[in-house]
C-alpha cells in the first residue's frame, strides 16, 4: 500500500520543524523513513549529503548512531537499566569504554537537570523525567538530527512545555530537531510546520 | 565479541532479569545432571562387571567335585566324587593343544598355623604354580610357588595378605618358618586376591606337598584350566568333552548336575560383555534424548525471551546496535547460561555419584564416577548446545526491524 504520495521536502541544518497530520496522514511513516527505521520503495532521501536508500541493516545501524537521536512518545527506556546507563547506551554501540560513557552520560543528565537521578530506574521516575532522560540519550552521541515522535503525547501540559523548552534549547545548540505531533500548541512553538494529509504535504 | 564491556552488558541483563534465566538454567542443569548421573551409573555397572572378573582369568574354566544326587550303574546317590592326579594328567595330555596350562586345587578349610608366638586358624590350599595366573593373584612380597617347589614337593608356602596382617603382624616374613598343622614351612611370598577376606585368609602350598603331608589319597577338589585363545564356542565344546570324560570315569549319571559342576568363565564374561554393551547403548540413547530435549527447551525459552525483549532489542537497534551485536548478545547470553548451569548440573551430578559410591556397596556396582574425558565431552556438548539453542532466536532477533519492535506494546 502506498502511504506517502509525493513528499518534496527539504529541511536545513539547524532547523526546528514540526510535522503535523491526523492519524493515517503518513506522518509516522515519514518519520520512520527519516529515522532509517523503515525502508522506502520509490524516491530518494538524502541526509547530510548521503543517499539513504536500501541500506544494509548494519549500515543503517551505523548511520543511525552517527546522525540521529530518537525521542519517542513512550520514552522507550530500558526498564532494568538506570538513568545513566540508558543515556549511555548509544555510546556502548560506538565502543566507548564504560567509564568514559558514564562521565558523558552524567554530563548530559546534568544538562537536562537530572544529575541526582542518575542511579534511578525508569520505574522510579515521572513521565516528564523519563522523557528528559530520553532526550539526554538522544543527545549523547552528538547527532546532527533529533527525531521526536510525539514527545509530549504521554505528558500533561505543564510537563509538555518543559520538554518542548528542552528541545528548543537543543535546537539552539545547533541541532536540527524534527518533532512529529498532533498538538497545535506544540507545533506553534516550532519554526516551521509541515502539514500532511493522505500522504501529501498540504502546507510547509 | 569477547571484550569486558560486552560481558558486563550481558551479566547485567542476566542479573537484572533473574527469573527467566533461572528457569532456562534449571532445564540445562537437570539435563546435564541426568547425563552425568547415567554415565556414572553405567561406569559403575561396567566397573562392577570388570571387578567380578578381575579375580579370575577370563579365558579359563573350572571343574569342581560335589556329591551325586542320582543313582547310576548301581551306585547310590550322595556319593562323594574325588578327582585324582590321573584325571588331571589325562585331561592335560588329551587336550594339550587346547589347554596351555592348568592347576589342580585341593583345600583344607581350617588348619592351625603358628608364626613366632602367634597362632590362628586359616585355610590351606594345594595347587600348581599356574594357579597364580588363573586366579589372578597379586604378589605383594617375595614370589609365588614355582616348578622347583612342585617337582621336589618342597615345604614352601605363600601366605594370604590377611594371614600376613593377623598372624605375622606385618613383620618381615620372607624366608621365615611357619608351622602349619604341625609341619614347618618356609614362607616364600605374600599374595592378595581382590578384597574378599576368604580369599586372603588362605595359604598356598604345592599340590604335591599337600598330597604328601595332608591327604591320605591324591584327591583333588577342583581343576582350573586355561583355555588359551579358544573361541567361546570352542570352550563350550571342550567343557562338554571334559564333563563327559569325568562323568564316565567317575560313574556319574549324565543327568546329575551336582556331582561335577563346571564354570566356564569365557561364557560368563561374554554375557557380561553383552550387558555392558547394552548399558552403554541405553545410556547413549537416553543421554542423547535428554540433551535434545534440553536444547529444544533452551531454544524455546530463548525464543520467549527474545519475544519478551522485542521492545528492548528494538530500542537497542534504534540506538545503533548492528545485527551482529544483537546476535552476539543473545548467543553469549544463552552460552553463558548453558555453560554456567551445565557446570552446576555436572558438579551436582558428580557429588551425587560420590554419595552413591560412598553409601552403596554392591559386588556388581563399583566406582560409579565419570572420567575426565566424559566430563570434557559433556562440557563440549553443553557449549555446542548453548550455541545451537541460542542461534535460532538470535537470528530472529537480529532480523527484527526496529520499527516493528518499537511498535510492540
List keywords for this structure.
heterodimer; A: 204 residues; six-stranded mixed sheet; two-stranded antiparallel sheet; 38% helix; B: 409 residues; alpha+beta; six-stranded mixed beta barrel; 10 strands
Explained architecture:
The complex is a heterodimer of chains A (204) and B (409). Chain A has helices spanning 27-34, 57-67, 83-92, 98-111, 127-140, 157-172, 184-187, and strands at residues 16-20, 46-47, 50-51, 68-71, 145-149, 176-181, 192-197, 200-203. With 204 residues, chain A is of the alpha/beta class. Chain A has a six-stranded mixed sheet with strand order 4-5-6-1-7-8, with helices on both faces. Chain A has a two-stranded antiparallel ribbon with strand order 2-3. The longest helix of chain A has 16 residues, at 157-172. By secondary structure, chain B is α+β, with helices and mostly antiparallel strands. Chain B has a six-stranded mixed barrel with strand order 2-3-8-5-7-6.
Q: What's the helix-strand series of chain A?
A: EHEEHEHHHEHEHEE
Oligomer: heterodimer
Beta-strand content bin of chain B: 15-25%
Order of SSEs of chain B = HHEHEEHEHEHEEHEHEHEHHHHH
Mean pLDDT of chain A: 90
Largest sheet of chain B: 6 strands, mixed, barrel
Question: What is the radius of gyration of chain A?
Answer: 17 Å
Instruction: Give the overall form of chain B.
Output: elongated
Amino acid at each position: 500500500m502506498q502511504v506517502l504520495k509525493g513528499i518534496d521536502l527539504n529541511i536545513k541544518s539547524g532547523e526546528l520543524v514540526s510535522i503535523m497530520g491526523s492519524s493515517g496522514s503518513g506522518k509516522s511513516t515519514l518519520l520512520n523513513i527519516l529515522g532509517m527505521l523503515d525502508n522506502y520503495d520509490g524516491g530518494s532521501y538524502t541526509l547530510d549529503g548521503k543517499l539513504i536508500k536500501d541500506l544494509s541493516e548494519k549500515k543503517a545501524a551505523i548511520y543511525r548512531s552517527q546522525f540521529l537521536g530518537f525521542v519517542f512518545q513512550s520514552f522507550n527506556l530500558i526498564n532494568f537499566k538506570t538513568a545513566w546507563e540508558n543515556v549511555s547506551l548509544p555510546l556502548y554501540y560506538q565502543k566507548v569504554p564504560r567509564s568514559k560513557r558514564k562521565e558523558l552520560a552524567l554530563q548530559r543528565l546534568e544538562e537536562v537537570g537530572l544529575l541526582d537521578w542518575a542511579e534511578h530506574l525508569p520505574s522510579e521516575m515521572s513521565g516528564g523525567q523519563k522523557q528528559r532522560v530520553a532526550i539526554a540519550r538522544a543527545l549523547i552521541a552528538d547527532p546532527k538530527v533529533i527525531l521526536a515522535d510525539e514527545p509530549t503525547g504521554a505528558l500533561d501540559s505543564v510537563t509538555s512545555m518543559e520538554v518542548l523548552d528542552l528541545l528548543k534549547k537543543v535546537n539552539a545548540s545547533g541541532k536540527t530537531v524534527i518533532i512529529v505531533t498532533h498538538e497545535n500548541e506544540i507545533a506553534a512553538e516550532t519554526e516551521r510546520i509541515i502539514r500532511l494529509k493522505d500522504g501529501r504535504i498540504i502546507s510547509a | 565479541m569477547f571484550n569486558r564491556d560486552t560481558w558486563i552488558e550481558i551479566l547485567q541483563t542476566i542479573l537484572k532479569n533473574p527469573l527467566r534465566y533461572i528457569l532456562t538454567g534449571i532445564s540445562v542443569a537437570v539435563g546435564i545432571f541426568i547425563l552425568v548421573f547415567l554415565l556414572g551409573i553405567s561406569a559403575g555397572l561396567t566397573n562392577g562387571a570388570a571387578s567380578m572378573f578381575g579375580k579370575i582369568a577370563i579365558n579359563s574354566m573350572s571343574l569342581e567335585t560335589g556329591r551325586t544326587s542320582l543313582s547310576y550303574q548301581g551306585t547310590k546317590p550322595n556319593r562323594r566324587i574325588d578327582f585324582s592326579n590321573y584325571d588331571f594328567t589325562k585331561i592335560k595330555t588329551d587336550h594339550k593343544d587346547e589347554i596351555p596350562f592348568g592347576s589342580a586345587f585341593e583345600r583344607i578349610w581350617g588348619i592351625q598355623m603358628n608364626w613366632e608366638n602367634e597362632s590362628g586358624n586359616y585355610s590351606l590350599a594345594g595347587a600348581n604354580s599356574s594357579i597364580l595366573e588363573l586366579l589372578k593373584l597379586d604378589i605383594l612380597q617375595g614370589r609365588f610357588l614355582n616348578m622347583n617347589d612342585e617337582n621336589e614337593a618342597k615345604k614352601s608356602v605363600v601366605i594370604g595378605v590377611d594371614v600376613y596382617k593377623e598372624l605375622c603382624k606385618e613383620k618381615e616374613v620372607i624366608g621365615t618358618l611357619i608351622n602349619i598343622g604341625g609341619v614347618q614351612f618356609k614362607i616364600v611370598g605374600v599374595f592378595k586376591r581382590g578384597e574378599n577376606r576368604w580369599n586372603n585368609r588362605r595359604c598356598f602350598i604345592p599340590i604335591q606337598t599337600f598330597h604328601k603331608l595332608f591327604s591320605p589319597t591324591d584327591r583333588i577338589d577342583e581343576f582350573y584350566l586355561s583355555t588359551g585363545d579358544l573361541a567361546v564356542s570352542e570352550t563350550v565344546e571342550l567343557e562338554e568333552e571334559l564333563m563327559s570324560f569325568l562323568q564316565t570315569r567317575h560313574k556319574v549319571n549324565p543327568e546329575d548336575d551336582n556331582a561335577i559342576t563346571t564354570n566356564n568363565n569365557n561364557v560368563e564374561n561374554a554375557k557380561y560383555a553383552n550387558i555392558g554393551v547394552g548399558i552403554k547403548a541405553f545410556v547413549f540413547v537416553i543421554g542423547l534424548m535428554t540433551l535434545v530435549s534440553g536444547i529444544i527447551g533452551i531454544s524455546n525459552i530463548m525464543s520467549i525471551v527474545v519475544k519478551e525483549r522485542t521492545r528492548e532489542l528494538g530500542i537497542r537497534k534504534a540506538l545503533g546496535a548492528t545485527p551482529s551485536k544483537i546476535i552476539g548478545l543473545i548467543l553469549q547470553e544463552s552460552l553463558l547460561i548453558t555453560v554456567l548451569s551445565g557446570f552446576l548440573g555436572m558438579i551436582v551430578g558428580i557429588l551425587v555419584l560420590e554419595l552413591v559410591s560412598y553409601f552403596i556397596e554392591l559386588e556388581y556396582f563399583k566406582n560409579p564416577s565419570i572420567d575426565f574425558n566424559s566430563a570434557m565431552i559433556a562440557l563440549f556438548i553443553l557449549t555446542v548446545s548453548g550455541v545451537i539453542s541460542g542461534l535460532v532466536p538470535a537470528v530472529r532477533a537480529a532480523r527484527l526491524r526496529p520499527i516493528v519492535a518499537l511498535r510492540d506494546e
